[in-house]
Amino acid sequence: MVEKEKNILKKAEEFLQIFKKGEEFTTELLKENERLRYKIAQLEETLRKSSEQSRMKLYEERITALEQENIELLERFKQVEEENKDFASKYVEVEEENNNLANLYVASYQLHSTLDFDEVLRIVQEIVINLIGAERFSIMLMDDKTNELIPVAAEGVYVNDLPSFKLGEGIVGGVAREGESYFAQDIVGHSTDDYTLPLVCIPLKIKEHVIGIIAIYSLFTQKRGFSNIDYELFNLLAGHAATAIFSSKLYTQSERKLTTIQSFLELLKEKPRR
């Protein structure tokens, strides 16, 4: 009986040992599980931070790229804006040139629309005032008999106050002899009362033959010098004005001769017969 109880106690003790080992194993498993969970949490946090850092880096790179792109777009915008200003300026210049050429065409048509000498001189004066912007100027024609430039029309000055010039005399006579335009070095805002020293002197030529000159003594205050189109206008005006003046002068002379001849014929017809 005693032996049997001993065996039971021994088995109970063995069972308790097994149970205790199981409890210890379970505790170790729980601890290991806790450690692994903590490790997993650390790994997840590391991955999360790494992912955030990657995203931040990506965002920063994207922001830098966008900023650079924005700078390039701003530079391009400035370039386009400058180009637009340049185009606008050129458009205004072209528009102005077209207007001037249209005005010159109209003026040229008016010059050749009449053979009245005084009317032609008036048209030339209007052109010089409206297209060139001259305030005071004179028109002189060459007297082929005396080789002198004689004032025939003026604006802002009296014709009788203007001197005549011999061919080759001073600036005016030199322009008539050489056939080349003269421009004073400083024109803007200046005027002259010395009619021997005009600011501008333009020869009126038919081919290479000078029949007169246009001498300018002052410009309107709003005229700030001459542009390229102005010099073209000078050249075109000189040729057209010269042709119109020369033609009208010849026509007037021929009309006078014709009138004289007709008057003489009328006198002959009225002479009584013997």
Task: Walk me through this protein's architecture.
The structure is a single chain. By secondary structure, this protein is an alpha+beta fold. 65% of the residues lie in helices and 15% in strands. It has 4 helices and 6 strands, in the order ααβββαβββα. It has a 6-stranded antiparallel beta sheet with strand order 3-2-1-6-5-4, sandwiched between helices. Strand 1 and strand 2 form a beta hairpin. Helix 1 packs parallel to helix 4 (228-270) and helix 2 (117-132) packs antiparallel against helix 4 (228-270).
Assigned CATH class of the largest domain: Alpha Beta
| Biggest β-sheet description | 6 strands, antiparallel
Which strand-content bin applies to the residues?
5-15%
CATH architecture tag of the largest domain? 2-Layer Sandwich
Number of helices: 4
Q: What share of residues is helical?
A: 55-70%
> Which blocks of ≥5 consecutive residues have pLDDT under 50?
none
CATH superfamily of the largest domain: GAF domain
Please tell me what the overall shape is.
Answer: rod-shaped
Straight-line N-to-C gap: 210 Å
Structural class: alpha+beta
Biggest sheet, spatial arrangement of strands: 3-2-1-6-5-4
Rg, rounded, reads 53 Å
Mean pLDDT: 80
Spell the H/E element sequence.
Answer: HHEEEHEEEH
